[in-house]
Predict the 3D structure of the following.
Amino acid sequence: MKETPLDSLIRAFAGLPGLGPRSARRIALHLLVNRERAMNPLMQAMAQTAENIRTCHICGNLDLTDPCAVCRDPARADDLLCVVAGISDLWAVERTGIFKGRYHILGGVLSALDGIGPDQLSVAPLLERVRGGAFSEIILALAATVDGQATAHYLTDRLHTLPGGTDLRITRLAHGVPVGGQLDYLDDGTITTALKARK
Amino acid sequence: MKETPLDSLIRAFAGLPGLGPRSARRIALHLLVNRERAMNPLMQAMAQTAENIRTCHICGNLDLTDPCAVCRDPARADDLLCVVAGISDLWAVERTGIFKGRYHILGGVLSALDGIGPDQLSVAPLLERVRGGAFSEIILALAATVDGQATAHYLTDRLHTLPGGTDLRITRLAHGVPVGGQLDYLDDGTITTALKARK
């Protein structure tokens, strides 16, 4: 049987993160029934974004301009660099509103299992940027996973080999109990870390 | 601050059923990062559906043709009519593959609270269709909610007033324990109904 446009639509939605066939069907139906109110604005927004969004050549962020708003902002500190794995991590840190330095997006973390080495990530541009910049502190804001921490280790080693690299302050995010987190839902590793880092 | 195209995109996604700001952000980012593989197919599918989908003037279903594939299918029984509240209910019954008659979509159920009376629903067309057709059985496949059952009551009364209406077999879906359902997760009403209808 040939796939109808409706089937294609449901399949396209079902492939998005967090959606399955059931939620995709529900969304497709909602769009078809509310063509004016839901489908057209969504189509317009997608067309506009697809046309206007650029990848920032400095940090790798997505924005309407290249360099992105963060890289262009003269009010941000030029001596503070936050290294994140992906764009969503940058957005997450930005939402806190507490960090006022620059970013560098790695594009992932090292993973022997997935065959991701330093060449697949934005490691060379990072080293180049740190070498040419005036950073005094590099925050490695990577996930508290084995791969994330291995990547942080690796980056620390590489950053230290740069001229003057040993003077760089290389920091990581603190580990501990998430704010609002119930102790009995947390894994032992987090509780152990939080206990050891108590203050 | 002016809303950027990216903000509009996230807002459009967040308004879809089952999605919130967090999942919308995740989807928007996925689409932007995978423009070729995810965004373009989705935009194409939406444009194609928006262009080609019609509302069937007989049953109210959405399809590429009017009348829809179900209404046009000569292999389906012309004496069996299944009345459902919405398009998603029609799809749900169709997925079972067990029903081989025709459909009528009401467009909702009666609701005093939401101010939905018979005039807001496709009740008159239903009566017209039954009067002009050769239906021997009408299945009222409405939700097992107060509003759904009130609607079924109302439709039964109205259908009985039709010429020859008292000869119509008017049936409803059986109530009971959902297949695969755990007893201890079910409400008392369902268990009571299932017990009374035991066989």
